[in-house]
Amino acid sequence: MPLKVYNTLSGKKELFETIEPGEVRMYVCGPTVYDSCHIGHARSVVFFDIVYRFLSAVGYDVTYIRNFTDVDDKIINRANQLGVSSEDISEKYINEFYRDMDALNVKRATIEPRATQHIGDIINIVSVLIEKNMAYPMDGDVYFRVASFEGYGKLSGRKLEDMEAGARIDIDERKENPFDFALWKTAKPGEPSWDSPWGKGRPGWHIECSAMSWQLLGESFDIHGGGKDLIFPHHENEIAQSEAAFGRQFVRYWLHNGFVNINSEKMSKSLGNTTLIKDILAVHHPETVRLFLLSNHYRSPIDFTDQSMKESAGNLDKLYGLLQRISDTYGNLPMVRLNSNNMSRYGEVWKEFFFSMEDDFNTARGLAVLFEAVRKVNRIMDDITDETAFETKYQVESIASDIVKIANIFGILTEIPYEYFDRKRSDALKSNTVDPETIETMIDQRTQARKNKDFATADRIRKELEDMKITIEDRADGTIWKVMD
RNA sequence: GGCGGCUUGGCCAAGUGGUAAGGCGACGGCCUGCAAAGCCGUUAUUCUCCGGUUCAAAUCCGGAAGCCGCCUCCA
User: Fold this and answer.
1) Which residue is nearest to nucleotide B25 (CA to C1')?
2) Which of residues 404-443 of A touch strand B (CB under 7 A)?
3) Has residue A280 been placed in a domain?
4) By the 8 A CB rule, do A156 and A145 touch?
5) Can you tell me the distance from the alpha carbon of A215 to that of A330, in angstroms, rounded to the nearest whole number?
6) A456 lies in the same domain as A413
7) Which of A5, A70, A98, A115 is geometrically suited to a Cys-Cys bond with A90, CB 3.0 to 4.6 A?
8) CB of residue A252 closer than 7 A to nucleic acid strand B?
9) Which nucleotides of B are covered by protein (CB under 7 A)?
């Protein structure tokens, strides 16, 4: 079971070996809660959700920490603009985060701490760093002394000397080195503040993650994740703080997900193309969003476009279509229990999926395995005869069971197929002026015409329905209809 | 200026030195009264280009071109 992960620290795929056998301690940077979550947040949160699900499913005991940074310049600015307190802002956006991520079927982490709950731990670390002479107080602020940490730059591959040349940084003459960063900031009037040995103040940006991970996972742990943008300076500074304070390796494996582009453009507020999760969910099924996010390798950029979403939506239909077909044929879905440690109960499809996922969480390849399985089941069911009925049921159940296990990792196919299609149809009807009763009546008329072999009338009615953006399918047990995309 | 990444069929996209997954689209077929859905088949002798290593390269090395990201708040 050789799981390999790409480690930003080494720039290579490495064999995954945990500090404690069978246990994974994992910390992922959550949002700074000053604004609504966009599709980029969704990518990071959904990806690490899948890492969490996968590691748990293959038998690890996973402690997963995902934090909220709820004290920060951006939150304070926002609060001042709106004339409310910082807590009002952070509470509002924490609630929004949960609403979005719950909708996306993201599992809650083991612990979801907030920076403001760990002020004491932050002060402790800062004090240790000052004692070790690796940080210095200055007019109520405390700065980390970058030059005192030998490994500074090892994550992002930067050298202090190289950076100084062209870097755009505000020159603060009080700092010993322009790259020294604030561990503690003295409070300005009206800002949230806490008592500290250096006076009233609040934490700097990076220190909260060092404090929370230390407190909840220990001085050294297995996985630290986040978006690529956090590599520098955030994660570089975390390493500096934590390793300087504790004198040992902070994190074994650093995982960073790539960005989401919008129609091939970088998503940014200046371009005005920041795409919020809640806006996407108003149009797309949450599982469509997950399927879309899984369709590329997590470290590559992914392009959010109408076409890519349409494809993912079609693929989701295909998956639910199979589940419905199985359910229509056999009455119920295979009962699946995701109880790991017993690989013998997993079929070939799961094994293929596992090989894909253990290679640096290759979800795109895992998706290919899933679709191959779907096609295989459809093929089997196309070919059912009386003689093969018993045998094929066993085959279908076996493969379908793997499909559902895979879906559990991907966090999709959580609905009853009938309800999925029903809801999809009623959602589509909201933007359509046609009422269902008219459709049903027309379908009845067409069914009657077909019974009478009056195919001209039958085809005319279908044409009329198509003009109303309604498509129909004649099935063994009757005619069903859908709203066209 | 420094650092990093990417370039695979009409489009999206995997690819672990051994002879190109998967999805969408298109075309042909099976099924169907006709459709739809599903299935089958065809769609890359070739992986931006030029060299090199090797029995063997999309995969390794060197170079060129194009695109992109980070270095400033950012998932």
Assistant:
1) A311
2) none
3) no
4) no
5) 51
6) no
7) A70
8) no
9) 1-6, 11-15, 21-25, 32-40, 68-75
- HSE, side-chain direction, 13 A CA sphere, residue A347: 18
Contacts of A346 (CB under 8 A, 6+ apart): A354, A402, A405
Within a domain: A302: no
A362: which nucleotide lies closest, measuring CA to C1'?
B14
Domain shared by A251 and A354, yes or no: no
CA dihedral (A85, A87, A91, A93) positive or negative = positive
pLDDT tens-digit series, residues A9-48? 988 889 999 999 999 999 999 999 999 999 999 999 999 9
**Which tens digit of pLDDT belongs to each residue from A243-257?**
999 999 999 999 999
In a domain, A218, yes or no: yes
Distances in whole angstroms, Cα of residue A350 to Cα of each of A248, A336, A338: 38, 13, 12
Please tell me whether any atom of strand B lies within 7 Å of the Cβ of A274: no
Task: Report how many domains make up chain A.
Answer: 3
Looking at residue A271, what is its pLDDT? 83
Residue nearest to nucleotide B73 (CA to C1'): A74
A170 to A143, A152, A164, A179, A370: CA distances (angstroms): 15, 20, 12, 10, 51
CA of A341 to C1' of B28 (A): 47
A160 touches strand B (CB under 7 A): no
- Largest pairwise CA distance in chain A: 93
Structure tokens at A185: 């900031």
Q: Rounded to whole angstroms, how far apart are CA atoms A72 and A243?
A: 23
Are A340 and A251 within one domain? Answer: no
Q: Which of A364, A386, A418 is the last residue of a domain?
A: A418
AA letter at A344: S
Cβ atoms of A62 and A263 closer than 8 Å: no
CA A456 to C1' B54 (Å) is 68
CATH of the domain at A393: 1.20.120.640
Strand partners, A265: A262
Determine the distance between A134 (CA) and B67 (C1') in angstroms. Answer: 42
Q: Domain limits at A21? A: 16-266
Q: Are A144 and A237 in contact (CB under 8 A)?
A: yes
Write out pLDDT tens, residues A90-138.
999 999 999 999 999 999 999 999 999 999 999 999 999 999 999 999 9
Q: Please indicate, yes or no, whether residues A322 and A412 belong to a single structural domain of this protein.
A: yes
Give the CATH number for residue A135.
3.40.50.620
Q: What is the ipTM of this complex?
A: 0.94
